[in-house]
Specification:
The structure is a single chain. By secondary structure, the chain is α+β, with helices and mostly antiparallel strands. It has one domain: Muramoyl-pentapeptide Carboxypeptidase, domain 2 (2-Layer Sandwich), CATH 3.30.1380. Helices cover 25% and strands 17% of the residues. The protein has 5 helices and 7 strands. The strands form 2 sheets. A 5-stranded mixed beta sheet has the order 2-4-5-7-6, covered by helices on one side. The longest helix is centred in the first third of the chain and has 16 residues. It is globular. The chain starts with a strand and ends in a 15-residue tail after the last strand.
């Protein structure tokens, strides 16, 4: 592990995770370069802030489930190569139903230089501590569509309320939201604002 980084689950008791890019369940349809283990990594600053967020979530009956944290630059490069391949239609209905692959970058859903690669950005959602069920959010992780934007129309009142719960928790713990993705938050005071790392997650 690079100095100043940690596995989030070793710092944040009770956090759940499903590192989507280490699995076949992501918009590329296969594990992504640099994700050699299904673990979430982040800067120690990110981990500390998430520990506080976990406590705040628990106070209102929720836990945190993480989908991504630190993302190696090689993974971002893999996304770029994938976007240039012919469309096979396998993941389009679920992840980008109304745009073409290349438009993911043009519309801001995927970046050639991602904040994730700086180590202090996280993709996450809430789950109910009583039932273990994910909170309804009106769309899954990496649904690249206007319905995923903060303030989107087309979501139910419950879904909008849950998105607001997540936003309130995260902003109170020093994170800023990303307009186009309700699940994406970056630490305001990130320790490496200009460095894009490329060590693999192992």
């Amino acid at each position: 592990m690079k100095e100043g980084f940690a596995f989030v689950d070793e710092v944040v008791p009770g956090v759940r995770w499903d590192a989507k890019y280490a699995t076949w369940d992501n918009f590329t349809g296969k594990p992504v370069d640099g994700y050699l283990a299904n673990r979430i990594v982040g800067t120690t600053a990110l981990c500390a802030a998430l520990a506080t967020a976990q406590e705040k979530a628990a106070s209102v009956g929720f836990g945190l489930l993480l989908w991504d944290g630190y993302r190696p630059q090689r993974a971002v490069d893999c996304f770029l190569r994938w976007s240039e391949q012919p469309e096979d239609g396998r993941r389009k209905p679920r992840h980008y139903p109304n745009i073409d692959r290349v438009e993911m970058f043009e519309r801001g859903y995927v970046a050639a230089k991602s904040g994730h690669s700086r180590g202090s950005t996280v993709d996450l959602t809430l789950f109910d501590l009583t039932t273990g069920e994910l909170a309804p959010m009106g769309g899954d992780h990496d649904l690249m569509d206007p319905v995923s934007h903060h303030g989107a129309t087309g979501v139910t009142r419950v879904e909008a309320t849950n998105r607001q719960h997540l936003c309130t928790i995260m902003t109170a713990c020093g994170f800023r939201p990303y307009l186009h993705e309700w699940w994406h938050y970056t630490l305001e005071d990130e320790p490496h604002p200009d460095t894009y790392f490329d060590f693999p997650i192992t």
